[in-house]
Amino acid sequence: MKDLESKINFFKSNGYIILDNIYGSEECEDIISHAHKVIGKSEDLTPLMNIHKSSDITQKFMANRELLLFINTYFRDTALGLQTEFFFMPPKTVGFNAHQDNTYVKASSDSFISAWCALTDIDENNGGLIIWPKTHNEEALETVDTGLSKSDNQDPNATIRKTLVPKKYEKKSIKIKKGSVLLIHSWLVHASNINNSDKNRYVLLCTYLKEHTDFRSGAYARRTPFTLDDTV
Length: 232
Fold this sequence. Notes:
Elements: H1 2-14, E1 16-19, H2 25-39, E2 48-49, H3 56-62, H4 65-75, E3 79-87, H5 102-105, E4 112-118, E5 129-131, E6 143-145, E7 161-163, E8 172-173, E9 181-185, E10 190-192, E11 203-210
Antiparallel strand pairs: 1-9, 2-3, 3-11, 4-9, 4-11, 5-8, 5-10, 6-7
């Protein structure tokens, strides 16, 4: 419990933390396999929104006990599943602009959290995440239109706006192993690099909401809270 408390304190201070070895290789491959079954022979690799709605294994994946222990302890309450998004991110896919997840969800500051689950080894070269530690302390920051349209194989919101990050914060590129999870505070500014490798960068984004918390459903995401059960 002291180790868990230390990790939560780090998260509260910095706005992020990496939990290593949450998932086994087979669990990661099962999620990837299911995503490819969903799209079939389609060449459109736009991220799949709310893949959990078609997949018991994805709901079970979200209900990982070690991950939920951290989130429930952080919330001091029960966590509900809220949204999933599966990223194929094939080679040359552009990254996501700097943004704060709670810009879209609009939940109470400490009642919403994102889990960026690496389904393959990820670094700066193949589309790894960029974070600005401690920016969660600013809460909502200004955003501006970029004048760009949707990029191929990327989320529709990835490039059309960006968050303006105060100059006092330094960015950091994250290197994360397959099966590990980057937990992201609701207001932490983050982005992602272009995938300059020759392979897909697979990630499952899972978001969690404290029970009885108000939030924005969203016309595109259509977020709907659901209970989590690892025996599904």
